[in-house]
Amino acid sequence: MLERIRIVLIGTSHPGNIGGVARAMHNMGLADLALVAPRCDVITQDSISRASGADHLLHQATLHASIEEAIADCTLAVGASARSRTLPWPMLSPRELAARLPQECKPDNARVALVFGREDSGLTNTELQRCHAHVHIPTNADFSSLNLAAAVQVLAYECRMAWLGQIEPPTVTDEQDERATHEELERYFEHLERTLVAIEFHDPDQPRQLMARLRRLYLRARPEKMEMNILRGILSATEKAALPRQR
Ligand code: SAH
Question: What does the pLDDT look like over 64-100, one tens digit per residue?
Fold first, then answer.
């Protein structure tokens, strides 16, 4: 999925920002960077230093004269915008966008472009109208414009989270012991009650809902078989230690 997502930067004017974008992308596992008419050099000391080791993305980046050229093969284009525009357009939150990605990216020919604007003036209306939808990162209404690389970071992170969400979670038995069964829990509760009576902590004639509260506690923890054995071992040792008192 991630290899089908392209970050498109339009008219960027600071090499440092392009480097910062490369770093944000590589951190999140994105690699396809397209630059449309950059207003600065791409490979500079600044961009390489801000890329902090992700400068291969700068060397691989494709250069284009227009947004049309950069997104020509894209099946979905989403423009990132800090401001709402005069003509309302389908608006997505970063998370709504991410939720659509697994499905959008399924076909072999799928390519999704996330389009970012100039540091000083963002995307033009014409550029925004080339996009299927717009995405706005929710911000302080009085201070809504993020640094370009920071905006890419937020969307790239959401892409990664959506991608991670697709991976099958490991089955329970892979990473933990089997859960105790109902019957094992019931045996434990009987043992627990017996022990609590023996040590005179619990008086069945004045139960004060003690056993119900303890049940709730243990059931919330969803104990594993092995943990159940430890707990029963503790009860047996407690019973043994309490024996002299009972005599
Ligand atoms: N001053 C410009 C914003 C430039 S920030 C303006 O007012 O439009 C550079 C780019 O980062 C923007 O074009 C946009 O693509 C992205 N960006 C910045 N803040 C954003 C936000 N809150 N939501 C979505 N994209 C944002």
Answer: 999 999 999 999 999 999 977 767 889 999 999 999 9
Longest Cα–Cα distance in the chain: 94
Task: Give residue 127's identity as a one-letter amino acid code.
Answer: E
- Encoded tokens for 142: 């009085």
Coil, strand or helix at 78: strand
Q: Please give the CATH topology (third level) of the domain spanning 2-163.
A: Alpha/beta knot (3.40.1280)
Segments of the chain assigned E as strands: 5-10, 32-36, 62-64, 76-80, 91-92, 112-116, 133-135
- Which residues, 6 or more positions from 76, have their beta carbon under 8 angstroms from its beta carbon? 104, 110, 111, 112, 113, 132
Ligand 1: which of 10, 36, 145, 152 to mutate, judged by most atoms within 8 Å of the beta carbon?
Answer: 145
Sequence ranges of the chain with CATH classification 3.40.1280.10: 2-163
Q: Is 119 in the pocket of ligand 1 (CB under 6 A)?
A: yes
Out of 1.10.8.590, 3.20.20.70, 1.25.40.80, 2.60.120.200, select the CATH number for domain 182-246: 1.10.8.590
Give ranges for CATH 1.10.8.590 in the chain: 182-246
Task: Give the integer Cα–Cα distance in Å for 69 and 65.
Answer: 7
Convert the pLDDT of each residue in 188-222 to its tens digit. 999 999 999 999 999 999 988 898 889 989 898 88
| Ligand 1 probe mutation, 8, 81, 86, most atoms within 8 A of CB | 81
